[in-house]
Amino acid sequence: MFQYTMRRLLIAIPTLLIISLVIFLLLEAAPGDPLGEVPLTVPPEVKAKMRTALGLDASWYIRYFLWLKQMFWIEPMHLWDTLFGTHMADDMQRVISFQSRQPVMDIIAQRMPQTLIVVGSAYVIGVLIAVPIGILSAYRQYSWFDNLGTFISMIGFSVPTFFTGVVLIVIFAVKLQWFPMVYDTTLQVTDWASFTKQLKQMVMPVTVLSLFNAAQISRFMRSSMLDNLGQDYVRTARAKGLTERVVVLIHVLRNSLIPVVTVIALGVPSIFGGAIITEQVFKVNGLGQQLILAIHANDLPMVMTLTFIFAVLIVLFNLIADLLYGILDPRIRYD
Amino acid sequence: MTDTTTKIRPPRNQWWDVWDQFKTHRGALVGLTIFVAILGLILIGPLVWHMDPTYVDFRARNKGFSLAHPLGTDQLGRDLLARMMAGGKVSISVGLTAMSLSIFLGAAIGVLAGYFKRLDGHLMRLTDLFLALPLLPLLLLMVTLFRDPLSKGFGPEGGIFLLIVTAIGATSWMQTARIVRGEVLALKEREFVLAARSIGTPAHRLVLRHILPNVMSPIMVSATLGIASAIITESALSFLGLGFPPDFPTWGRLLFDAVDQIQLYPMRVILPGIAISLTVLSVNYIGDGLRDALDPRIRGR
User: Fold this and answer.
1) Nearest chain B residue (CA) to A291
2) Is residue B213 part of a domain?
3) Distance from CA of A35 to the nearest CA of B (A)
4) Does the distance separating the beta carbons of A167 and B262 come in below 8 Å?
5) B100 in a domain, yes or no?
6) Domain of residue B202, CATH code
7) I need a surface site. Which of A8, A76, A330, B144 has the fewest CB within 10 A?
8) ipTM of this model?
9) Which residues, other chains included, contact A261 with Cβ-Cβ below 8 Å and sequence gap of 6+?
10) Residue A31 pLDDT
């Protein structure tokens, strides 16, 4: 197991390096100019100086290695500094956003909580809804509940999240005026009133995302339960005289959760991607919205770093899913 | 003994069996009907409804439902029925073209990796690499960065169409490739392949005549589901403002344009949204029915 983990971690390094190179070259090949927004009245020699200041006159591989160094050497040192109050990286150049002239990592750290709160709670709620629905659908296969569940989950992953979000806005924010239309991130939770306000503005984005997640996970849960319900050990358990409750909720559920847990782990990075759209619909200023702003402004370091973080998430959760599978299922051994 | 002759029916094409099985899936039949109806509206509709989708009529701005404009008009007085039909044509053709590209790539890579052992390792490593790419951010990036040069080269509409179709196709072939590779690996060990090889069939004919027809069913299922996801991706891009130019309607673009005035004219958001959802839902149901119909273990039961 330990060997397998180490091997996978070692494979992850070249994968991530190649991905970062692909993203970098894509940005490089693009014709967009980060100085495109600078007024035409600025003389060319000033523009050339600005270019040098941004580090744009160096050839691409130098800038790529510079980014690698900043990302993997200087940023971790800065993190160390801020955590333990040392001053090792004070005079080193961090990854700086073209747009705001702030370190990219600071902006990401500012925006991370909004995304994590919305996306994280949506995923947890989605899983909590999906698992019981999956169990019941499988246990009462082809009942009205199962048919309804199948239909709703079909709708759940056919209707795009930007449309469900917009429909919710029309119904609950425009017509009924129960919830605010725009997510207010400046809100500080200090007392009960602000807490309910925070809950209220979270209701709609969380509903949209968790419905979408629940639709997929409940299907996996259902088919995994169905696979297990037909097995011999279930008949044995019933023959022993165990109650139906124990058979289904302990014997079958535990075994059915194994593949579902890995699916849940694999889904984590993709919900960050899906959150890009949901954040745009509800105007949550999280990471996804920052990515879109940066793309529009040709903010190369920001786009590069954010996309790379998404890639890291995918590789990391793929690894976690594989390891979980090995830990949970004794039939699978990686040697 | 005498009864056996009556049980033999005249030989017929296996696709009739598939169709018979497909007909028993109620959801798939409803889906097919709705999809054909939407296609009919989009293709035949403009022949009946002669309004130009880009014609600006300032005197008829923001009209509700009426006889002159059955679905109303937008903030520039353009007829929404005509725009919906034009938008549907673009959305569905993007879906179909992107799906064809991704299926072609996926099937080619899957067959190559499954059939030729030398290529397997490299191609599957490539597939894993693509699966680890953050797709939506990369799509956004590709579309923003390359829209200007391509619109200069191929015209604003053709360029963006080419860009979006290529971008979606190039980032969605991985699942198909994996499924096809698995099937080919199993098929390769079967006797009929051995028989074909023993009489000296060259590799390309073996693949085209013997392997490919046998992996048609997973390819068809993933093709159907590919249309749905391509339509969703295109409208998501349009919704983020990174799709087609404004005077070139697609369903996603219509939705995006109407979001700003959602409080005043909610119907303008709902209509294209329903069109997208209905199309995707019907295509998904068709895929579901096809999966059952093409599975010989279920068919004929």
Assistant:
1) B137
2) yes
3) 14
4) no
5) yes
6) 1.10.3720.10
7) A330
8) 0.80
9) A324, A328
10) 64
